[in-house]
Automatic annotation (TrEMBL):
SMART domains: GGDEF
GO biological process terms on file: cell adhesion involved in single-species biofilm formation; negative regulation of bacterial-type flagellum-dependent cell motility
Listed PANTHER family: DIGUANYLATE CYCLASE DGCC-RELATED (PTHR45138:SF24), REGULATORY COMPONENTS OF SENSORY TRANSDUCTION SYSTEM (PTHR45138)
Annotated region described as Disordered, given as residue ranges: 15-45
Record field: compositional bias (Polar residues): 32-45
Protein name listed in UniProt: diguanylate cyclase
Class of the enzyme per the UniProt entry, highest EC level: transferase
NCBIfam families reported for this sequence: GGDEF
A GO molecular-function annotation: diguanylate cyclase activity
Source species of the chain: Luteimonas aestuarii
Ranges that cross the membrane: 61-78, 124-147, 159-182, 189-209
PROSITE patterns xref list: GGDEF
Length: 402
């Protein structure tokens, strides 16, 4: 009773699977295997810790629910002139049980599974009181409804179905204890005693639901942000970058707003990666991404297009202005000093393409920028090549002139 809206929706499974599968990391080879294993281990530990905190979260709701039920049940017991033994049972189940359940779960090797058993015992206790109250109608209906709704709200698969037999067993035990006495009439006094359980429980569940929805919305927003960002470089992931780039191209075709695309590729990246290792390779990518982010504007679209290739879409920008920006990036990349390979020189090649009528699709625009990029590679790397207004503009720039 009173354990609805406990927090994130739960499922019975081994703790190792609750966190989900390993998150792909932007590494390759052995580094990726080690990193993925470490990430999976960390997620498993977090998931297990989250499940083990379940008893503490449920305790507050169980304490409230049982306390409200105590008022309702106490009203019936007073009317029926209950025995001392029945009142002792009332104190044990309504007042002491929440604390005993918490103690039992915390001392268990698996607090989560112990708490699932406690939830089933809640239903058995509710059923017991239906019988002991001699089936007083309103309190009995309330107890059955609330404990069943509580099980459904946890989202633990089939828990509410499992709770029905335990509830029925409790009813049978209570009915046998009273000789199957049947007094369904609900007096005004008992009705008033039932109102706190009906009203306060409903309000508490609503508050819990509101908090849960807010947390879920925050988590979804965080996941949405994470899904758009490449974890290694801090730049847009390819899919998100392509979506924004396509929107920029559509605006160009709709209202003629200029836009320029830069494709940037790290020179000799595979050689450096193989020679110095993946850690240095990752450092190169982070440093180059940092140089790009330093010079782009807030409304520019910079993303990681491939392993060592980046794309930058510059709205409201002509090719000439884009080349000036590329010059700045080129110089900053040359100044990079790698902690893992301080003697190594980092350079990039850049291809620039201004959007025009030939670019009906984003793929065609990228192909044009890639053509300029490959021309820069063939011309010796560490330089810029630009294509604008449909004409090749030999804006090659070697290391000695930039």
């Amino acid at each position: 009773m009173g354990v609805a809206c406990l927090g994130p929706r739960l499922r019975i499974s081994s703790p190792a699977t609750v966190g989900g599968g390993p998150t792909p990391l932007p590494h390759t080879g052995g580094t990726r295997v080690q990193s993925t294993t470490a990430a999976t281990s960390g997620r498993t530990q977090d998931a297990t810790a989250g499940l083990d905190r379940l008893p503490g979260r449920i305790f507050r709701f169980r304490l409230l629910g049982m306390g409200l039920a105590a008022i309702c049940i106490g009203g019936v017991l007073l009317e029926n002139g209950a025995s001392t033994a029945t009142w002792l049972m009332w104190a044990l189940t309504c007042l002491a049980w929440p604390h005993l359940a918490l103690l039992r779960a915390r001392q268990s090797a698996s607090p989560y599974r112990a708490e699932v058993h406690n939830l089933l015992l809640d239903s058995a206790i509710a059923g017991l009181w239906v019988g002991l109250m001699q089936f007083n109608l309103l309190p009995s209906v309330l107890l059955f409804t609330l404990v069943t709704v509580d099980k459904i709200s946890t989202a633990i698969p089939r828990l509410w179905l499992w709770s029905l037999p335990t509830f029925a067993i409790g009813v049978a035990i209570g009915a046998v204890s009273t000789g199957f006495a049947f007094q369904p009439h609900t007096s005004t006094v008992v009705l008033l005693a039932s109102l706190p359980m009906l009203l306060i429980h409903t309000i508490a569940v609503s508050i819990g639901s509101n908090r849960l929805v807010s947390k879920v919305q925050e988590k979804n927003q965080l996941l949405d942000r994470i899904s758009r960002i490449d974890l290694l470089t801090g730049m847009h992931v390819r899919r998100h970058w392509q979506r924004l780039a396509a929107q920029t191209l559509q605006r160009h075709h709709a209202d003629g707003e200029p836009a320029t695309l830069m494709m940037l590729d790290v020179d000799h990246f595979k050689i450096a990666n193989d020679r110095h290792g993946h850690a240095v390779g990752d450092e190169v990518l982070r440093a180059v991404a940092g140089a790009i982010r330093t010079h782009v504007r807030d409304d520019d679209n910079a993303g990681r297009y491939g392993g060592d290739e980046f794309g930058v879409v510059l709205p409201a920008t002509r090719a000439g202005a884009a080349k000036a920006l590329a010059d700045d990036i080129l110089r900053e990349v040359r100044a990079i000093v790698l902690s893992g390979a301080p003697q190594s020189q980092v350079t990039i090649s850049i291809g620039i393409a201004e959007a025009d009528r030939r670019h009906a699709t984003l793929e065609q625009w990228i192909e044009t920028a890639d053509a300029a990029l490959y021309r820069a590679k063939r011309a010796g790397r560490d330089r810029i090549e630009a294509i604008a207004d449909g004409r090749d503009q030999d804006q090659a720039q070697g290391a000695s002139t930039s």
